[in-house]
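Entry for the shared binder. Reason: the reviewer on the internal report wants the predicted structure included alongside the sequence.
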Amino acid sequence: MSWFYLLIAGLMEVGWAVGLKYTEGFTRLWPSVLTSVAIVASMVFLALALRTLPMGTAYAVWTGIGTLGTVALGILLFNEPSDLLRLACIGLILVGIIGLKLVSGH
């Protein structure tokens, strides 16, 4: 169950990271409210995952999921660069997440 909590925490991190763009510096009410809810939810689910997962592993995977999702949505929604070298570097983060899952023993 901890890995499921960690996945939800990572997805919520993507939500708040992308949501920050829509808040326009927290000047728009509803995007700001939704972003704030996503921040709290991300922390709650990360805390639940940390009950049984090693802190370093959980934190690395949480930020990795957030990075992957935020980069993907940045490319799709905001026309951010998607050159081969950038995608290859993001791929290395994905390999790291998978590796941490495989060696965690949980």
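Summary line for the report: The chain has four helices and no strands.
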